[in-house]
Amino acid sequence: MTTDIATLGTPSFGGESAEQALTPGQLIWRRFRKHRMALLGMIGFCILLLFIIIGSLLVNEERANAVDLQGRLSPPSEVHWMGTDSTGRDIFARIIHGGQISLVVGVLSVFLSVSLGTLIGGIAAYYGGWVDSLLMRFTEAMLSIPSLFLLIVLGKFLGRDIQTFTIFGQTFSGSVAIVIFVIGVTSWMFLARIVRANVLSLRELDYISVSKSLGASDMRIFFRHLIPNTMGAIIVSTTLGLAGAILLEAYVSFLGLGIQPPTASWGNMLTAAQTFIQKGSWWMWVFPSIFIVATILCINLIGDGLRDAFDPRSTRHL
Fold it and tell me: How far is CA 237 from the centre of its chain?
């Protein structure tokens, strides 16, 4: 009888040990995969990436920029799956290469902003004193600069003066560099504050004091102990920042002050379509709009799932 009672109690203890045996990465993934909307967003974003990557291999940029005045404003058909624009360019091909530009702008600008925010916030918190005061006053000063206004001004006065350049066979207008730079240097401040708050709490923990007593350098402590323990906030900020950067690029390009021809982007495709909205050429604005909305929605769903997954107090998806 004693053996039976012990046997009956074994599964519950085994389940508890299995829960405790999960690594932080496994626990994060477990929370994320149980967030159905976040998982749906990840699947949708992966499909979008495959569409752009595989499409760029099958459809070259010359086809996207090829002008055919005889076939202008053609509706979707077997030849042109998404129709043509006012100069006869294939919208399907331009959607593919416009997606490349939008994602490149988003990824590079977010990489720049995350790097700046992480370094400035982390250094300010780690060293404290006058370093913290100086960097935080600089951060507050940067918050007063309207990124959209700066992007419009620089795009108007410098966008057409910078020559086009080619990377990996893809042609970029000079305005791409301006958009990436402005979005990157004007969107790091909120992340800097978050990183600073996390590092301020982490630097007082015992393992940091032990590392200092063992002779670890400031750089090693900063990059091996402090920054890795703030990766949750950094990853979530990166995801949400990517959606914001893509939307801002589309907005400025729609105004005609962002990505300039011959480079295609979803934003400037909408600019070309605005005069034909009431003329029946619905395909010129519907397809770019669908891709912009779908991309932003997928990224925001992923960011929402990551936020819950990295929150140690969250039990919503356990």
Answer: 8
State the residue for tokens 């920054």. 227
Amino acid sitting at position 202: L
- Measured between alpha carbons, how far is 318 from 308 in angstroms, rounded to an integer? 11
Tally Cβ neighbours within 10 Å of residue 278.
7
* Banded pLDDT at 160 (limits 50, 70, 90): low
What is the CB neighbour count within 10 angstroms for residue 78?
5
Q: Which domain range does residue 205 map to?
A: 24-66+83-310
Q: Which of 217, 187, 224, 10 is nearest to 106 (CA)?
A: 187
Q: How many C-beta atoms lie closer than 10 Å to residue 159's C-beta?
A: 23
When divided into structural domains, the chain yields a total of 1
In a domain, 216, yes or no: yes
What is the per-residue pLDDT for 192? 92
pLDDT at 163 over 80: no
According to the model, what pLDDT value does residue 249 have?
80
Average pLDDT over the chain, rounded to an integer:
79
